[in-house]
Amino acid sequence: MRFKNCVKMENVLLHQNPHWAGKKYGQLYHREILDRVWKKCETRHIQVLTGIRRCGKSSVFRLLINRLMDIVSPKTILFLNMDDPVYFETWNNPSLLYNIIEAAEKVTAEKVQYLFLDEIQTVAAWEKFVKSVYDSNLFRKIFVTGSNSSLLRNDYSALLSGRYFADAVYPFSFRETLAINGISDHYELHNRKPEVLRLFDDVLQWGAFPEIRQIADTEIRLDLLKSYFDSIVMKDCVVYQKISDVPTFRRLLLYTMSNICTLFSYKSLAGAVGSNENTIKKYLHILTDSYIVNDVLNFSFSQKEAARNLHKIYSADNGLINALSYKFMDNKAKLMENFVLTELCKQGWDEITFGNRNGECDFVMKKDTDYQAIQVCYELTPENEEREYKGFTVVDGQIKLQRKTVITYNQSRQVDDMEVIPVWKYFGV
Fold it and tell me: How far, in Å, CA of 379 to CA of 32, rounded?
């Protein structure tokens, strides 16, 4: 079987692969994940990148293509955006990908060595195709992106076991935002502190999606963020997950985004949106799978106990909060707590929970056997500082904390074994 409109497809291939002309992609910012992924290019293992839509996965692909162009012919590199409607016939028939590759090789007169498949989740059973071409050594390297964390957790994905590396891509980290603005060392961080604070204030309100960071106009930012939200909800949730009760799903999403950083149980959340616990669990899983929200569990050594305990929901990006819930525009304390959670995710901790037992500790992070805890307080005052310091005792008796940190907007001090540090310094260079 072949595509019905081969001429149109060839035009799309030329449009999606301008590097074939030998010109590198411009207007790209360096991403911290790039060096980590580049090191793996020498292996045959499939490279999988997952992350929320518009976070920069395709840009990471282009950065990789730029580097590959230094060592191989650009015409041996094929980039396919599988979200493009011209490829709709492949969405239920992955074998047609062979025809696309054949068409590309016909256009370039060179064999494809590096295959980049963007937004691969649109293609049903894509794993079968990827496994087949991997096992037959058809390419030197295969790269795929997807906007769902469960991309490699279905029945077909078991076919790729032991054949891939998986890495998560996020919107810009604060360190990346600083670097884009020429602040890349400790001297610049402190010497340009007023500018650093202005950048932080802007990220706190508008988030860190790459495209948003390049736009200054407030109305355009807001429209873009709403467009992101609608695209994610429709493509990665409603359509991809085949949601039938869309009104309830949207009510849940809007309610959670309007109540970030707030303790809840499945039962209380079900009551708030007029649904039942099983539906709430299912829809929350879909939201976290699409990277829209982070569902943070209560700290516990028992996984069963953790699953029964309270939860806290955080948005994947501060900009989405303000695009959907105007009541948070001036709630800097909540916005900063959400910002801290997103930055911790970008740092790659193995596990992030919160403590809630006769008090509350905002975040407990684990990496290997190292445990650290963080309290987030926009401003420490005589009225709240004792409560913030005591938050560490919630988990301190259960585990040995290697570091206790109170993150503030712009305060520094040392209190016994607790460090008070400004947020811009903690997540800076």
Answer: 30
Grade residue 149 by pLDDT with cuts at 50, 70 and 90: confident
| C-alpha dist (Å) from residue 189 to 175, 311, 335, 342, 357 | 10, 35, 22, 21, 37
C-alpha dist (Å) from residue 361 to 184, 195, 421: 31, 31, 16
Cα angle 264, 270, 276; round to 5: 140
DSSP-assigned letter for residue 399 = S
What is the identity of the amino acid at 257?
Answer: M
- Give, rounded to a whole angstrom, the gap between the first and last alpha carbons of the chain: 53
Cβ–Cβ under 8 Å, residues 77 and 113 = yes
Answer positive or negative: Cα dihedral of 417, 422, 423, 429. Answer: negative
Angle (CA) 223-322-360 rounded to 5° is 155
Collapse the DSSP code of 162 into the 3-class scheme (helix H, G, I; strand E, B; otherwise coil) and give the result: coil
List the one residue out of 429, 253, 286, 426 whose CA is nearest residue 344. Answer: 426
User: Residue 4: pLDDT band by 50, 70, 90 thresholds?
Assistant: low
Pairing of strands 360-367, 351-356: antiparallel
**CA dihedral sign, ordered 310, 316, 317, 322:** negative
Contact 90, 97 (CB under 8 A): yes
**What's residue 153's pLDDT?**
75
Distance of CA 280 to the CA centre of its chain: 22
Q: In this model, does residue 398 exceed pLDDT 90? A: no
Select the more confidently predicted residue: 189 or 305: 189
Query: How far is 190 from 164, CA to CA, in rounded Å?
Result: 41
The model's pTM is 0.94
> In the block, which residue shows the tokens 């807001």?
222
Instruction: Give the integer Cα–Cα distance in Å for 116 and 340.
Output: 33
Q: Tokens 């401003």 correspond to what residue?
A: 379
- What are the respective helix, strand and coil percentages of the chain, to the nearest 5? 50, 15, 35
Residue pLDDT, tens place only, 21-44: 999 999 999 999 999 999 999 999
Give helix 246-257 / helix 277-289 axis angle, nearest 10°: 70
- 239 class by beta-carbon count within 10 Å (0-12 exposed, 13-18 middle, 19+ buried): exposed
From the list 128, 124, 123, 129, the residue with the least C-alpha distance to 115 is: 129
